[in-house]
Amino acid sequence: MQTEIVKLSAIKKNPSNPRTIKDDKFKKLVQSIKQFPEMLEIRPIVVNNDMIVLGGNMRLAACKETGLKEVHIIKADDLTEEQQKEFIIKDNVGFGEWEWEMLANEWDNEQLEEWGLDVVGFDADADEFGEDFSLPDGDKEPFQQITFTLADEQAEFIKAKLADIKKSEEFKYVETFGNENSNGNALYLALNNG
Q: Is the peptide bond before 15 cis (omega within 30 degrees of 0)?
């Protein structure tokens, strides 16, 4: 299969694609295409013989939003109907998991958000919380990870309170139950003292 350049108007959105990007994430996708249009050549939209999108529905919508007239495509003309349905799902399934600690230590949080990665729930500057700050990587028995969605003001308030608690004398003696995460222990202490 080879890439080709076609008029954007020739490509049809797939009404059966179960995946969508809304609001802020869509705006970030539009912005990323404006800033890095070469990405579309490296990762073209995949279509079938009828020019219906199999992979790249949101990129197609974002390209229209940016005002592009042409786009790179790959025509997957040898797939059966069943294979096309399978491709749509598999193209949209996120395989693997993010190495959150690596992202926090080696990538800029604002850039990651601009590029469309949802990083709500952690600050890329792990040093602000100390060496034992851990990031989402799934539950590890007998521990649990709980994720909250917060407004920016709420998140800043909570970060500041946790930092204050960790500086307190009381924090030195908090019951950790074997938990090495200082943020979790500080939160426990705050709520336990109610």
A: no
Q: What is the pLDDT of residue 99?
A: 65
* Distance of alpha carbon 12 from alpha carbon 168, whole angstroms: 60
Residue 90's alpha-carbon distances to 9, 43, 64, 95, in angstroms, are: 26, 16, 24, 9
Burial profile 49-58: b = 16 or more Cβ within 10 angstroms, e = fewer: eeebbbbbbb
CB hemisphere CA count around 105 (13 angstroms): 11
The least confident of 2-6, 105-109, 123-127, 178-182 is 123-127
Q: Measured between alpha carbons, how far is 139 from 131 in angstroms, rounded to an integer?
A: 20
Are the CB atoms for 160 and 185 separated by under 8 Å?
no
Residue with tokens 């349905």: 85
Residue-range domains of the chain with CATH: 3-92 (3.90.1530.10), 100-193 (no CATH)
Alpha-carbon span 34 to 161, nearest angstrom:
39
Sheet harboring 53-55: ordered strands across?
A: 3-7, 70-75, 45-47, 53-55
Instruction: Decide: 165 and 171 in contact? Cβ < 8 Å.
Output: yes
**What pLDDT is recorded for position 25?**
81
